[in-house]
Write a structure and sequence with these properties.
Elements lengths: L3 E3 L11 H6 L1 E4 L4 E4 L2 E3 L4 H15 L1 H26 L5 H14 L4 E10 L4 E9 L2 H10 L8 H15 L3 E7 L8 E7 L9 H5 L35 H13 L6 E4 L6 H11 L7 E5 L8 H8 L4 H4 L4 E5 L6 H15 L6 E6 L3 H6 L5 H7 L2 E4 L10 H15 L9 H9 L5 H15 L8 H4 L11 E3 L5 E2 L13 H15 L4 H8 L3 H10 L4
Parallel strand pairs: 9-12, 9-13, 10-11, 11-12
Antiparallel strand pairs: 1-5, 2-3, 2-14, 3-4, 5-6, 6-8, 7-8, 14-15
Helix pairs in contact: 2-3, 2-5, 3-4, 3-6, 4-6, 15-17, 19-20, 20-21
Length: 540
């Protein structure tokens, strides 16, 4: 990043522009999600937020409410900075800072006009002045309380503080000098490095900023909220925060210390074995053996098959002091089910020699009704069932899973960690993943291998032609309407991945009226790379 900059020296049209940011905003129509890159958003009427804000003020008092909203704004600003860094990677810090007011505008807080900002990272210096027109927070405050003596855009003033501090690497504080909540025509906001505001700086406490003492320009320790989420440190860690996954993980952690059987239920690829290994690791015998049995491999209950599990030196004996994991347990032949049921009944009366974990891809009661599973075995196995949701029902976990697999597979293949292009990420956020987490892992691994060295991972690197590619979601354009390309990418008949790749380039070029630079930014590639493809495929 360039360490010095001035907004007045920034070239017109420097990315990310409003159009670039609008392109990163997609409406997954019918899915109940709005994405700004990989951050899930919601649309809420400002009157509803204004009513909630008024309730908090009345309940806690204006001073405490102000601190809460400023803190919320700070966190929102930090998240927005992370979003801009992730979607629009470049070495121009001035352009990244200039994107902040555009994000603020596109999210509907206010129309932001940048008068000027300048900074010097080495000297930890920043000064900026901005105007907010028609601030939503100010309007709602006036509606609920009338004009105020002090500025009232509390959450909004925290946003640029968090955004700018996260990008420049030292604390920058913004304050509202004029506010429409006071009766002004528009809001005036001034931003300065923390030292420039003097000693009376309550924001350091509100935002949790450890302000340097003694010498100026000492290394700044950011507040804990600005530190990125801790990466999984164990290969068996469960990644995700969706409601269904959190419930499954919580149940797993609750039953881990026990010795009773656990049944993991979920579609193919949801991670049942991954859960089983994590449960074993959290249990009372983590250093014991973890023995995996693929039950579908036993098509008949021959003596040899029976002995391989239950005989002397068999898999059940090998699991002593650890865990025996029966994968696809419903496919066990009837005779082997009877032997397993007898084994479970015998070990109930004494300390079990191993922890029995099993997994099934369908509901056990359906298998009982169809005569494929003994009822007594069903009740023995199903004492502690845990349902693992399919990936299509936990889409909020996709960003963290994608990042996890990018890191995992780049390490495995000893390759620099590549990034997904914007369109590739957008497509994955809408894909249904019939193969669930396993399929996502394979797609990310494939993308890393197929991508050109040093380039982003494109749609054509991930989707091979055997998947049912989802339609483009609606995307917001600069003019404010939702853009839905007429060309819908589908895989059918004799279409190849090259056809799909060409359709993607043409659709994006059409969207930007064949402005190659803008289309290249949308596709996550350089202008030279897109020029090469236009020439290669003779696009017109």
């Amino acid at each position: 990043m360039l360490e010095r900059g001035d907004s007045q020296l920034l070239e017109d049209g420097a990315a990310p522009t409003l159009a670039d940011l609008a392109g990163a905003l997609q409406f997954a129509l019918g899915d109940g999600r709005i994405w700004l890159n990989d951050a899930r958003m919601v649309m809420v009427q400002t009157e509803v937020l204004g009513g909630l804000r008024a309730s908090i003020i009345n309940a806690l008092g204006p001073e405490r409410a102000r601190q809460i909203f400023m803190k919320a704004g700070w966190l929102h600003g930090v998240k927005s900075a992370n979003l801009v860094e992730k979607r629009f990677k470049h070495d121009n810090l001035t352009a990244a800072l200039a994107a902040g007011p555009r994000v603020h505008t596109i999210e509907g807080f206010a129309k932001v006009t940048t008068k000027r900002f300048e900074f010097d990272v080495a000297k930890q210096y920043y000064h900026g002045e901005f105007l907010w027109h028609d601030s939503a927070e100010g309007i709602e405050h006036v509606h609920n309380f009338g004009h105020s003596r002090d500025p009232v855009c509390w959450m909004q003033v925290g946003v640029p503080s968090g955004y700018t501090s996260a990008l420049v690497g030292f604390p920058v504080i913004f304050r509202e000098i004029e506010c429409i909540g006071q009766g002004a025509e528009r809001c005036v906001i001034i931003g300065k490095n923390a030292d420039a505001w003097g000693d009376d700086l309550e924001e350091t406490e509100i935002f949790g900023i450890a302000r340097p003492k003694g010498k100026k320009h000492q290394p700044w320790t950011p507040p804990i909220d600005m530190i990125k989420a801790e990466k999984p440190t164990n290969a068996n860690d469960i990644v995700g925060r969706s409601t269904g996954l959190v419930r499954a993980r919580r149940l797993m952690e609750r039953v881990a210390p026990l010795s009773e059987p656990v049944l993991l239920l979920g579609e193919t690829g949801t991670g049942k074995e991954h859960f089983a290994r994590r449960l074993h690791q959290l249990g009372s015998t983590p250093n014991g053996p973890f023995v995996r049995v693929n039950c579908s491999a036993f098509e008949d209950a021959s003596t040899q098959a029976d002995q391989s599990i239950f005989g002397k030196g068999g898999l059940a004996e090998q699991a002593r002091g650890g865990s025996l994991f029966l994968n696809d347990v419903l496919s066990l032949p009837a005779a082997m089910q009877a032997r397993l049921s007898m084994l479970l009944q015998s070990i109930k009366v004494k300390n079990p020699p191993f922890r029995l974990l099993s997994a099934a891809g369908e509901q056990p009661m359906e298998a009982v009704a169809a005569g494929r599973l003994r009822a007594d075995l069903h009740y023995d196995l199903s004492l502690l069932p845990i349902v693992i949701p399919p990936l299509r029902d936990r889409r909020d976990d996709l960003p963290s899973l994608i990042e996890h697999f990018l890191r995992l597979h780049s390490t495995r293949h000893k390759r620099p960690q590549a990034e997904l292009s914007g369109p590739a990420l957008d497509m994955l956020l809408r894909y249904d993943f019939p193969g669930n987490v396993r399929e996502l892992s394979n797609m990310i691994e494939r993308g890393l291998i197929y991508a050109e060295p040093g380039a982003n991972i494109e749609i054509s690197n991930i989707f091979t032609g055997i998947e049912t590619i989802p339609q483009y979601a609606g995307q917001m354009r600069r003019e404010g309407d939702v853009y839905r390309p007429k060309t819908i990418v589908e895989v059918r008949g004799e279409r190849t991945m090259q056809d799909i790749e060409i359709d993607t380039y043409v659709a994006t070029l059409d969207e930007f009226d064949w402005n190659i630079s803008a289309a290249a930014r949308k596709l996550g590639m350089s202008r030279a790379q897109l020029d090469y493809r236009i020439s290669k495929y003779k696009l017109r």
